[in-house]
Every structure is written in structure tokens, then in C-alpha cells.
Amino acid sequence: MRILLIEDEAEMARLLASRLASKGFVIDRGRTLEDALSAARRSAYDLILLDRRLPDGDGLSLLPTLRGIQTGVRVIMLTALDALNERVSGLDAGADDYLIKPFEEEELFARIRACLRRPGSEVPPPVVVGALTFDFASREATVAGHAISLRRRELQLLEALISRAGRVVMREALFEAAYSDEDTVQPHALDTVVWRLRRRLKQAEAGVTIHLVKGIGFALTEIDL
Fold first, then answer.
1. What is the pLDDT of residue 121?
2. What is the mean pLDDT of residues 104-109?
3. What would be the CATH architecture of the domain defined by 127-222?
4. CATH homologous superfamily of domain 2-117?
5. Rounded-to-integer distance, Cα 140 and Cα 134, Å
6. DSSP states of 21-50
7. Are residues 59 and 50 in contact, defined by beta-carbon separation less than 8 angstroms?
8. Which residues contact 89 (CB under 8 A, 6 or more apart)?
9. Which value, in Å, is the radius of gyration of the alpha carbons in the chain?
10. Burial per residue of 84-110, b for 16 or more beta-carbon CB atoms within 10 angstroms, e otherwise
11. Domain ranges in the chain?
């Protein structure tokens, strides 16, 4: 899943992006309203974390435009403005949630999970292929109830592949699923992560494999017994 973080406090943005990435999210960052608009027009997001006080204006003013660009995207406002009328105005303006700074990391993760579970969200139900189950809400892969330990990019690639199980996923789509706009990617980085993921699935006896479709991409399929 991809999250857009718009926060002008550099150290806070860095820490938040790092912790969210550790949970398996792909994070794109910006610090202004203009950055947010540019990113929303360029990429699709599952959720946007939007600060209110930005160098070029109030984050609330951007909500109608964001909704027009990406219908249904979830937006959590991040702000130090904690007065009741400020919280009410934020929710009335169309924010899905409103989190007051400073906040605890686990509360942010809980609110993200809650937003993504709400009716109308884009989180699909769990998918089962072979012996492998992938839960998009918890972002966990299991075999016979036992979680498979995956690195961040392995998890991101598995999510992209299993959501289109049996079909070829183009390399460009996999790059977008696993890497943010800020990442520096080596030429064969994607192939290396796919190779590691394929090995982990085999070790877990997941009953699936990942096929290379030369020049196009990869496909996750059930192993014929």
C-alpha cells in the first residue's frame, strides 16, 4: 500500500516515513500543498497523511481538490491545532480522521488501520493461493496459520503479485509497489527482491511460485502437484 506524507517538519517527516516504511508501506513525501497536488496527480494512494500548517497554506484547503483527483482516498490530518473547533472544522472539511501532535506511534498505526477498514475503502478481502493466505488489512502472509517473515520490499512485492494472482504484473507496476519516489534503485534490484521472495515462499511451503515473463514482468501462481 502507498501512503503520501505531507509534513514540513523535516525530522518528524523523516521519522514518520521510516516507521511507516518498516510496516511495509511505500511512502512518498512532500512538504507543501503544491507537493501534495503534484504527487496526487502522479500516483494513486491508499491514504494521505496531511499536515494543516504548511509553508504555502492550510492543508484543509486542499481536501476538495484531493477528493476530485483521487475519489475515495482516505485522509488523516496531522496538526498541533487541538481546539475543539479546529478538530470539528477538520472533520467537516472532509478529513477521515484528525490526529493531534504530538501523538504516539501506535495510535497513528491504529488510526491508519481503522481508516483502511472503513466501508468504501480499497482494502480487498484476504486472498488464498495454494497454501498461502495474504491479509491485506493486517499486511500479513501466512501458511497454515503461521506468519512468513518477510522483509519490507518482499512484502510489498507479494502484495502486488497476489492481488493479481495468476496474471502477469508488469515490471513498472512492481517498481511502483516497492519503491518510493525518493529511492535510488539499482538496475537489477527488483529481480533480486523477487528471487528472495520466491525462495522464502518455497521454504515456507506456500504452494506458490513466481514466474518470470521475460521482458514484461512476473506472475504469482499456484504450484501444480
1. 54
2. 89
3. Orthogonal Bundle (1.10)
4. Response regulator (3.40.50.2300)
5. 6
6. HHTT-EEEEESSHHHHHHHHHHS--SEEEE
7. yes
8. 60
9. 19
10. eebbebbeebebbbbbeeeeeeeebee
11. 2-117, 127-222
